[in-house]
Specification:
With 226 residues, the protein is mostly helical. The protein has three domains: 104 residues, 434 Repressor (Amino-terminal Domain), CATH 1.10.260; 30 residues, no CATH class; 39 residues. The strands form two sheets. A two-stranded parallel sheet has the order 1-2. A two-stranded antiparallel sheet has the order 3-4. Helix 2 crosses helix 4. The longest helix has 20 residues.
C-alpha cells in the first residue's frame, strides 16, 4: 500500500541567489550612504537608463520574498561600476550566523548551506585551477610605443595594468575563509594564540627549579658468617 509522505517542515528562511543580490544591493547603497534616488543617479550612466525610486525600492523589497527581482549580467556589471564594488560583492551569501539557506532547484526544503554559494564564488581546491589558468592567459603588463620612420621608438608608458597580482587576493580570501571555518572568529583566535605564545615565553624564561642531588646509597658489604 502506498503511503504518502508529508514534506518536511521548513525550519529556516531561504533566499534565492536573486534575493542574495537584492540584499547586497541594499547593503551597497547603505555602505555608500546614498538614498535610493542618489543610488539610481549613480547607476544611471552604467545602466543606460535612470532607475526610478520605485524600481530601486522594489529591488530592496524583493529580499522579503514578495515579487523577487531577477537580475541579468549587464545589470550586475553596472552595479559593480556604479557602487565601485567587485561583482563578487553582490553574490556574497548571508553569514551562516544568519541561518538563511540558499534556495535552488536541487536544494532541500531548508535550502543549501551558504558555503556552497561561497565555494561557487571563490572556487575550491577542486575548481580553482581552471579559473586560474584562464586568468593567467591574460598577458603581462603591456606597454605603448610609437615607432618613427627613422627607426626611433618612443615609449608612451604602460597601457594595461597587470592583473596577475590579483590572484593573490583570491588566494588570501580563500585562505581567510578556511581559517575562519576552522577557528571561528579570527580576531578571537589571534588573541588566544598570542596569549598562549606569551605564556610559553614566560615559562621558557623562568629558571628551572633544581632538585637536590640525591646521595648515593651506601653499598652493603656482605660479611661472611663466622
Amino acid at each position: 500500500m502506498l503511503q504518502s509522505m508529508a514534506r518536511r517542515k521548513q525550519t529556516r528562511p531561504t533566499h534565492t541567489v536573486n534575493q542574495v543580490i537584492a540584499s547586497n544591493v541594499a547593503k551597497a547603497r547603505m555602505l555608500r550612504g546614498w538614498t535610493q534616488q542618489e543610488a539610481a543617479d549613480a547607476l544611471a550612466p552604467y545602466l543606460g537608463t535612470k532607475m526610478s525610486t520605485a524600481s530601486f525600492s522594489a529591488i530592496e523589497r524583493s529580499v522579503d520574498g514578495g515579487r523577487v527581482r531577477e537580475f541579468d549580467a549587464d545589470e550586475l556589471f553596472a552595479f559593480a561600476r556604479g557602487f565601485g564594488l567587485p561583482i563578487g560583492w553582490f553574490f556574497t551569501p548571508p553569514s551562516p550566523m544568519d541561518d538563511i539557506g540558499i534556495a535552488a532547484p536541487d536544494a532541500p526544503v531548508d535550502g543549501l548551506d551558504p558555503h556552497i554559494l561561497m565555494d561557487a564564488l571563490l572556487g575550491t581546491d577542486e575548481t580553482i585551477d581552471e579559473w586560474r589558468e584562464l586568468l593567467l592567459s591574460w598577458p603581462l603588463i603591456s606597454h605603448r610605443v610609437r615607432r618613427y620612420d627613422d627607426g626611433r621608438v618612443e615609449y608612451l608608458g604602460r597601457d594595461d595594468p597587470d592583473v596577475h597580482p590579483r590572484l593573490d587576493l583570491l588566494d588570501d580570501l580563500r585562505a581567510g575563509m578556511s581559517i575562519r571555518e576552522a577557528l571561528g572568529d579570527v580576531d578571537e583566535a589571534r588573541h588566544v594564540l598570542l596569549q598562549l605564545a606569551d605564556l610559553l615565553a614566560e615559562l621558557a624564561s623562568e629558571p628551572s627549579e633544581k632538585k637536590p642531588a640525591s646521595k648515593p646509597k651506601a653499598s652493603r658489604s656482605k660479611t661472611e658468617p663466622k
